[in-house]
Design brief:
alpha/beta; FAD/NAD(P)-binding domain; 19 strands; five-stranded parallel beta sheet; 373 residues; single chain
């Protein structure tokens, strides 16, 4: 049975970025387990989907590419585009992992996790069993869509199950959801020449909305939405709370709203209603403490409050009102966790970049508190 100090589960941007941080700790025995291939979630994106955060190489001036997983690399340079596709970003992650010789084991799905009597964890995987003192969960969210936001959702097509919007050849579609995935679905269908009805609870893009892209529509998506509206092929209906979808006797589907309104649609409605709150962390749900909103409760070091030695990294991390659901946000946690692990293992952490300046002049949480920029 192999024994390691740290195991990271997941080889997306959180897992690869965390591994790069751990690589800076001399003497640390660690590995990354990936059930599929590096960047697998991004390879599942619809073909037309692009990063909403722009990639731009400004590293020489102290500000890392927003989508980079370490300070010196840049997806913009690797892919040659400002808004990478899923496949382009997955290729970037694989390039970084191979270039740094990271110990990533692909096709090694974790089947079960068990706490050991004193400390540490036993992991049963497709390629055998191993033990680790510390476990970092970095399984993301795209592979864990919310498929049941309301009764009858099984009649719908979820955004995460779309391969190519060009495959949708009917003249008209209805999209449910007004945040990033719903708007992206509507925009891409309009670009393909389709007429789209977009049902939303509220505008996430009006000028008075919060400009944090974790809470409102990103500028990139707003721009594309306005352009889609200008085509006249996009109709947006506001104040809609969908409570049910049901099949019609004559074929097609009826979409029911809480206020009694309904819409009939010949094609299966498209769900842009997001992903499960816990993302991939629901795979080991009993090892986390969950609050009343269904979010995972963590210590200040991103450690499980229920299971010592278990850490969470990636888009599910939240602290008070801070939401770390973008790469440029959650990568700030890499050094924090690595430093904590080095201290626990009595290893030298001097090579780690943590605190102010680790990710450039705007890369630390204290910089922008109360700032007018």
């Amino acid at each position: 049975m192999r024994q390691l100090d740290v195991v990271i589960v997941g080889a997306g941007p959180a897992g690869i970025g965390m591994a790069l941080a751990l690589q800076r700790i001399p003497g640390l025995k660690y590995g990354v387990l990936e059930g599929d291939q590096i960047g697998a979630s991004f390879r599942r994106w619809p073909r037309q989907t692009r990063f909403i955060t722009p990639s731009f190489h400004s590293n020489p001036f102290g500000l890392a590419d927003l989508n980079a997983v370490n300070e010196l690399s840049s997806p913009a340079i690797h892919a040659g585009v400002e808004h990478p596709s899923g496949d382009q970003y997955a290729a970037y992650l694989a390039f970084i992992a191979n270039g740094h010789n990271l110990p990533v084991v692909c096709r090694c799905k974790v089947l079960s996790v068990a706490r050991l009597p004193r400390s540490g964890f036993r992991l049963d995987t497709e390629q055998g069993t191993l033990q680790t003192r510390f476990l970092i969960w970095a399984t993301g969210e795209f592979q864990f869509p919310d498929l049941a936001p309301f009764p009858g959702a099984q009649w719908c097509t979820h955004y995460a199950h779309v391969t190519d919007w060009q495959d949708f050849t009917a003249p008209r579609y209805t999209v449910i959801g007004g945040y990033e995935s719903g708007v992206d679905a509507a925009v891409n269908l309009v670009a393909a020449g389709r007429h789209v009805r977009l049902l939303v609870r509220k505008s996430t893009w009006d000028p008075d909305s919060d400009y944090d892209p974790s809470l409102s529509l990103s500028p990139y998506s707003r721009q594309r939405l306005y352009e889609a509206v200008d085509t006249t092929r996009l109709t947006i209906i506001f104040d809609v709370d969908i409570v049910k979808v049901s099949p019609c006797h004559r074929g097609g589907y009826r979409i029911h709203a809480a206020d009694g309104r309904h819409w009939d649609e010949p094609q299966p409605p498209i769900l842009g209603t997001g992903f499960l709150k816990g993302g991939g962390a629901i795979q080991i749900a009993d090892l986390w403490e969950w609050n009343k909103e269904g979010r995972i409760v963590l210590t200040e070091a991103d450690e499980s409050t229920r299971t010592p030695g278990l850490f969470l990294i990636g888009p599910q991390v939240r602290h008070d009102q801070r939401i770390f659901c973008f790469i440029y946000k959650f990568r700030q946690r890499f050094g924090l966790i690595a430093h904590s692990l080095a201290q626990c293992l009595s290893l030298d952490a001097s090579a780690l970049q943590t605190g102010a300046g680790a990710w450039g002049p705007f890369g630390n949480s204290e910089c922008c508190d109360g700032c007018e920029c």
